[in-house]
Design goal:
Length: 278
Amino acid sequence: MKETIKMIGLITLICFSFFYTDKVINVINEQDPIMIKINDVKDKYNIPSINATITEDTIIPGINGQEVDVEKSYNNMREIGIFKSNLLIYKEVSPQIKLSENYDKYIISGNNKINNVSIIMTINDSNINKLSKLNNQNLCLFIDNDTLSKNLSSIKELKNTSVYPYGNNGTYQEDILTLSNNLIEKNTNNKPLYCLSLTKNNETLKVCKNKKMHTIIPSINGENNAYNIIKNKIKNGSIIYLKTDSKTLTELNEIINNIKSKGYHIVSLEKLLSENIN
């Protein structure tokens, strides 16, 4: 019994010593001119987060903020012994209203603070042979399950192209979506994060929500007269839908060049809808 009490006492003493030492180190650090300077200027470098914008059943992603990580910044500068603003280290701060917590809303745009846009297209058996012409354009393809199942070898060869499920030619059912998601995960470089609905469809929203997938509604429907519609309506965060037919493919390079000439970057949906700062 005495030995047990001695052991408990020794452990308590060791724990107290570590606690006390840590407290002493913290007090010393707080008095270091580098730490004082970091605390003085940190608010200047902090950027507040922006909440996702929800309007009824639609949502537009927000942007994470950033704060100076005081401890890591101090440790970074202590090695050289002076304060330097370019050695500040930051941590991202999530908004209170986040895209990742709202699967029951239709995404209608990326954030309008950033000059990124996305081009999405639907693919089925009638136009699968045109896939090769879409390589290296950073496009997003929604492919129905039958086409996906029959053309895995072609899909594996796609480069700089994101692939997402389009259900049974636009009709989403849980069993078909599960199969499509499995095929996409095994045969492409991206995860099936999104569903596509050209108009509001509560059944699609429900099925995709159950799979923790967001439902996209394009902000620009370029199914007809794509070039002129895009030219007149494009803005930061636009999600542009193009029909994969011979006319669109003929105009595709011209459409892409026009978008880029206006200063927009064509990016994947995942990047367009990311709430990360970079």
